[in-house]
Amino acid sequence: MADYQKIPEEIAALSFEEALQELEKIVEKLDSGQVDLDQSIDIYTRGSALKQHCEGKLRNAQERVDKIVNQNGSLSTQPANVE
Fold first, then answer.
1. 5: which DSSP letter?
2. What pLDDT is stored for residue 78 in this prediction?
3. The pLDDT of residue 79 is above 50
4. Sign of CA dihedral 33, 34, 39, 42
5. Nearest C-alpha neighbor of 27 from the set 60, 3, 50, 56
6. What is the pLDDT of residues 6-65, one digit of tens each?
7. SS3 call for 2
């Protein structure tokens, strides 16, 4: 995980749904072609942090699901398909 940037506190405080919604807005802005280069770089950087945050939230959710899967009366783990 050393390759990733540190997620700003304001992004880390967002729920998965809030972060995903903001990420979708960023993608729409970039796709529109209506932002200048400097602004594109800034919002791309924020989008990268939002993506990293969402991926972390999904990993945590998958780990929680894996821990509670019950098979034949005993706890076991099965990978959750969250992709």
1. P
2. 62
3. yes
4. negative
5. 50
6. 899 999 999 999 999 999 999 999 999 899 999 999 999 999 999 999 999 999 998 888
7. coil
- E strands present in 1-83: 70-71, 74-75
Tracing tokens 């050393």 back to the chain, one arrives at 2
- Residue pair 77/63 in contact (Cβ under 8 Å)? The answer is no
Burial degree of 63 (CB within 10 A; 0-12, 13-18, 19+):
exposed
The secondary structure of residue 13, as a DSSP letter, is T
Q: What is the C-alpha end-to-end distance of the chain, expressed in Å?
A: 20
The answer to whether the CB of 49 falls within 8 A of the CB of 14 is: no
Token couple for 78? 């099965």
